[in-house]
Amino acid sequence: MRILITGGAGFIGNNLGTYLSGKGHDITLYDKEQASLASCAAVQGDILDQAALEQALQGHDAVVHLAAMVSATESVAHPEKAEEINVQGSTTVLAAAQAAGVSRAVLASSAAVYGESPATPTSEVEAAQPVSPYGDSKARMEDVAAASAVSTCCLRIFNVYGPGQKADSQYAAAIPAFITRALNNEPLTIYGDGEQTRDFVYVTDLCRAIELALTKGDGVINIASGNAITISRLAETVIRLADSSSKVVHEPARAGDPRTSLADVTKAKEALGFEASTSMEDGLKETIDWYRNSKSL
Question: For residue 295, what pLDDT is reported?
């Protein structure tokens, strides 16, 4: 297939481009930043620029829409940015796909649509009750996708991690922040009491789910491991695997962060034939090795 990936220069985009090109697909990375994977073509452009998107999408069979504001915390400070990028941007991507004759779109949604305290494990029939502008924007993106003339599937991705994830932002996800600090023997900061739970999915497993969704599945589908871990346990595991002398410190909980997160992955198994296969231990080892050998520390 010929596939265009928006947000192709980002963490998931880079991993997905490498994965799909390795599977024999013809990949174009589309991003405001310059993408640079030898195995993929690259187009520098904005998802709000419909004309540029239409031109880039010519001749493609499918689009994977990853470009987004990805931080719930940042969205609380800048809700208008979440609206512009995640809602208007997704609308533009789907309009451009339709105009270019693209037949399939897979969109990256988020577990944030479920809100702070959904029933767990959380299935796709649970009502969307987002508590952050980010979660709200992803729920509205799903509505846009459902109304599109293009065949769509929205993957509600839980907490993805793996090699290449940024750790140099104040909004960095827990795993890259923990790993980089542990490798430097610095304190690991937990926001809240640490008993909040998360369902993490390794990025290669996510890439496999996206490939499956290019040809099957519709509506919204959870993509996760189906296993939960507390943030305190996660920190302890990172410290152990990194052979670190780091200690854990606590700060007040952050606005917009859910207390519990655990996916019901039944629909992913039934509709896509997908099950996560990377254990937390193995995924963390691979990720720690990448950070240890990278120049980002």
Answer: 60
In this structure, the dihedral spanned by the alpha carbons of residues 5, 7, 12 and 13, taken in order and rounded to 10 degrees, is: 40
Q: How many domains does the chain have?
A: 1
Among 22-31, 123-132, 198-207, 267-276, the least confident range: 123-132
In the predicted structure, residue 169 carries a pLDDT above the cut 70: no
- pLDDT for 66-86, tens place per residue? 999 888 778 888 889 999 999
CATH of the domain at 141: 3.40.50.720
Structure tokens at 277: 């296969």
CA distance 207 to 173: 19
Closest alpha carbon to 67 in 228, 52, 77: 52
Cα gap 238→205, rounded to integer Å: 20
| Residue closest to 96 by CA, chosen among 35, 45, 40 | 45
Other residues' Cβ atoms within 10 Å of the Cβ of residue 36:
10
The predicted model gives 18-45 an average pLDDT of 95
Domain that holds residue 270: 2-293
Contact yes or no for 202/278 (Cβ under 8 A) = yes
Confidence of residue 251 (pLDDT cuts 50, 70, 90): very high
Nearest to 257 by CA among 198, 187, 206: 198
